[in-house]
Design goal:
Layout lengths: L1 E6 L6 H14 L4 E5 L2 E2 L7 H10 L5 H4 L7 E2 L5 H7 L6 H14 L2 E9 L3 E3 L2 E2 H8 L3 E6 L4 H14 L4 E7 L6 H14 L3 E4 L3 H4 L14 E2 L6 E2 L10 H5 L16 H9 L13
Parallel strand pairs: 1-5, 1-8, 2-5, 3-4, 8-9, 9-10
Antiparallel strand pairs: 6-7, 11-12
Length: 285
């Protein structure tokens, strides 16, 4: 089963939510992997967001990360996917993303697909990300916050999700940076009226300031290809590798201060093989 993780804006906490959700599922013995639909703003051959997912999960990069399956497209300019691709003379082929996701679906029970930017960002000049997800029919996990303006942005995003008949699996309420207490409490109450499953994610800013991204690619991993599609010739990675000891990151999965956030709503959706029932935004008020 595949879930799509989107947010009300860029920088809202999608990567943290995706990594923590995968961590929870992994700890509860679900065979889970994360995927980044398109990565922009980087030149390294492996998605920085996917590497952050692995760090939060407490595991080494997976073979699928090194072969490029977990991030089919990567571009240097920090912009919307359609623009970042155009600046490098590349055209994003949605079917290439779909095939990568299908490969992961064949190997794993759950795929958590993190988007790029907001829900309505253009994937190509002719296709919105939201319309691509509608074609795939993935349940949506929406990351929001309690900052001023989030209610409007959240309701607009939910309206776009409902318009496309996509299930809203849950809302993730990111509390970093800490919102105004009065506004945050009210926003959370409104979100809980809209969706029965709201995950309150604690302030996690301290774990996002990790500068070890470049060192996670081991010296013995031979990676070839352009920055859009990378292929690993020899990863040598497995889940039980002593990866973090090898790379001198000073990180021990069993001791790092990564909080456990309850994402049982995802587990419940997998058990039911369907997301929670739809309730229109209008009828919730």
């Amino acid at each position: 089963m595949t879930f799509f993780i989107t947010g009300i804006d860029t920088g809202i906490g999608k990567t943290l939510a995706t990594g923590l959700a995968a961590r929870w599922l992994h700890q509860h013995e679900k065979k889970v992997i994360t995927q980044k639909l398109v990565q922009t703003g980087q030149t390294s051959p492996i998605s920085e967001d996917v590497l952050e997912h692995r760090r939060l999960m407490g595991i080494a990069p997976l073979p699928e990360d090194l072969e490029g399956t977990t991030c089919p497209y990567s571009f240097a300019y920090p912009a919307s996917p359609h623009l970042a691709a155009r600046l490098e003379g590349c055209t994003i082929e949605p079917n290439h993303i779909t095939q990568a996701t299908k490969t992961l679906q064949e190997r794993y029970e759950i795929v958590l697909l993190e988007g790029a930017g907001g829900f309505l960002v253009p994937l190509t000049p002719d296709l919105l990300l939201a319309d691509y997800i509608e074609q795939q029919g993935y349940p949506v996990i929406l990351v929001t916050s309690g900052r001023l303006g989030s209610i409007n942005h959240t309701l607009l995003t939910i309206a776009a999700i409902r318009q496309r008949n996509l299930p809203l699996a849950c809302i993730v309420f990111n509390q970093y940076p800490a919102p105004d207490a009065v506004i945050g409490t009210d926003s959370l109450a409104i979100f809980r009226r809209i969706c029965p499953n709201v995950v309150a994610m604690p302030s996690l800013g301290h774990i996002s300031n990790w500068s070890g991204i470049a060192s996670v690619i081991p010296a013995h991993a031979e990676i070839q290809g352009d920055r859009h599609h990378t292929q690993c010739l020899d990863s040598g990675f497995r889940r039980n590798d002593s990866f973090f000891a090898q790379t001198n990151l000073g990180y021990a999965p069993e001791t790092d201060c990564v909080p456990d956030v309850d994402f049982s709503c995802i587990y419940d959706a997998v058990i039911r093989h369907s997301a929670p029932s739809h309730a229109s935004v209008r009828s919730s008020f």
